[in-house]
Amino acid sequence: MHKYGRKIGKSKFEGVSDQDVVYIGLDVHKNSVHSAVRINGQVVTTVMPAEIESITATLEPLRPACRKIVYEAGPTGFGLARVLERMRWPVEVIAPGKTPKPANEGSKTDRLDCRYLAECSEKSMLKRIAIPTEQEEADRQVVRTRNQLIKKQRRSKQQILSLLLLYGLKAPSGLQYWTQESIAALRDLCLCRELRFSLDILLDELDYLKGLIRRIEEEIRQLAQAKRYARKEAHLRTHPGVGPTVAMKYLTEVFQPRRFAHPGQVARYIGLAPRVSGSGDRHWEGPLLKAGQGDLRALLVQAAWQWVRRDRRAAAIYRRLVRNTGCKQIAIVGMARRMAVNLWCMLVRDQDYHPLAA
User: Fold this and answer.
1) What distance in Å separates the CA atoms of residue 238 and residue 251, rounded to the nearest whole number?
2) Rounded to the nearest 10 degrees, how much is the dihedral formed by the CA atoms of 150, 151, 153, 156?
3) How far is it, in rounded angstroms, from Cα 155 to Cα 157?
4) Of the residues 32, 137, 235, 298, which has the maximum number of CB atoms within 10 A of its CB?
5) Cβ contact 340:266 at 8 Å
6) Global pTM?
């Protein structure tokens, strides 16, 4: 039986062999990594600098016995997992929302968190998530940056409207659609020097954000023409209601689509699956599960409205859902779920949209 102290170094693990069983839990931060090593049921904790060389040097003696290394997905990204994968370590990134939570959590520290992860890993209680490649993550970031700029543009418009309301200024005609004429009218408003300066700053910011959005949309169009996406993007755009933005958002968020075993997994991943509760004869479906990428879900709902308008068969399904649920919003979310599943099937089967197969 091995005896390990609280403070450990590389030499402390030299006696570990492939006859031992080791599970490692990590709590990864910007400057430090807390680790818990379970060796044959015994736990040793340590703190390492957040440097790949330091982490791998400390853990290297455990390689023959290591069954799994786990850490939760977070702001530090997937860089550590990709490096460990290339070094042939059995590493998994865990979904934080799927980690079992005790009824009484008690104290919470980094040391306790990594111990709990190692324990849950040994009991196979954790839910792993897919690790994107560096290219997949970079492509996804381009599309996500567009969504971030859209939100900033929306906030900029709200600030302009708030300024008009605060000072009792009448909004020019067409401002609800933010036409060029209405924005030009804002610049011609007769105001005192200070208000004129403040409004011009907000209008300049809006113009700047519009220019950035045009640049990034051009980048997304070029990305769609890349060899790794061109064929897939062309398939997705044959689905009614799906344009270049929705297609590329879906491709970059639902990467490696063959990892999903059935449509239900796709719906839950995107966040289009309802919370189901049942006991005895009672069955209840509640709001959507808090999961998935909200921007993709919102785009799919918007695309579902276009699908219903353009496709008679989809419109008939939508009307049936409205009759069954009594709510147009619930019905259109149901159509968005169908669209998400359709797009997944098209990617897996490498085919265009076919109404009878949807």
Assistant:
1) 14
2) 180
3) 5
4) 235
5) yes
6) 0.87
